[in-house]
Design a protein that fits this description.
This protein has 181 residues and is mainly alpha-helical. It folds into two domains: 86 residues, RNA polymerase sigma factor, region 2, helix turn helix motif (Rna Polymerase Sigma Factor, Chain: A); 72 residues, Arc Repressor Mutant, subunit A (Orthogonal Bundle), CATH 1.10.10.10. It has eight helices and no strands. The longest helix has 26 residues. The protein is globular, with a radius of gyration of 19 Å. About 10% of the residues have low confidence. This is RNA polymerase sigma factor. It comes from Adhaeribacter terreus. Keywords: Sigma factor, Transcription, Transcription regulation.
């Protein structure tokens, strides 16, 4: 069994067995990132393919540090690039500032599986979903998101607030259905 460092060194030398080992080691986690940023499985597959090609092309630039963070960044960037290429096809709502409370916690949140929560997030309008994932899941600031997506910081904040409001309403609806019986 190869260590992560041996796999990386083998990939730098272009060894197919090491590339396959890297794919097996990180594939499922990276596919999750692709699914979070896509509308369809087909789109996620395209992002996944593009990102792994980029990993193998650029692995020689990896130095020391957390390899998981390095590869994750490539996949997030591939997803953002896909979003930019397709943004004209997504329906955007007006993105002016909103005054929204940040009370997004509901009692039913603990009862949702990760898959159910993922499904709710995927129902968000595309811009809201991307900003939500970048901020809440990936931890980027609104300034970083604005720079990555070519939008204003206020738009990033607004879309996050709207995403949280929509998710809160969906969670409240789920809770009211569960306890209505």
């Amino acid at each position: 069994m190869l260590t992560e460092q041996e796999i990386i060194e083998g990939c730098k030398k272009g060894k197919p067995a090491c590339q396959e080992a890297l794919y097996r080691l990180y594939g499922k986690r990276m596919k999750g990132i692709c699914l979070r940023y896509s509308k369809t499985d087909f789109e996620a597959d395209d992002i996944f393919q593009d990102a792994f090609v980029s990993v193998f092309k650029n692995i020689h630039t990896y130095r020391d540090g957390a390899f998981g963070s390095w590869i994750r960044r490539i996949f997030v960037n591939a997803a953002i690039n896909n979003y930019r290429r397709n943004v004209k096809h997504y329906n955007h709502q007006d993105s002016h500032e909103l005054e929204v409370s940040d009370e997004t916690q509901t009692n039913g949140l603990d009862e949702l599986s990760a898959q159910e929560l993922m499904a709710l997030i995927n129902e968000l309008p595309e811009g809201y979903k991307v900003v939500f994932n970048l901020n809440v899941v990936e931890g980027y600031s609104h300034a970083e998101i604005a720079d990555m997506l070519g939008i204003a910081e206020a738009t990033s904040r607004s879309q996050l607030a709207r995403a949280k409001t929509m998710l809160k309403k969906k969670l409240e609806k789920i809770n009211s259905c569960k306890y209505a019986s």
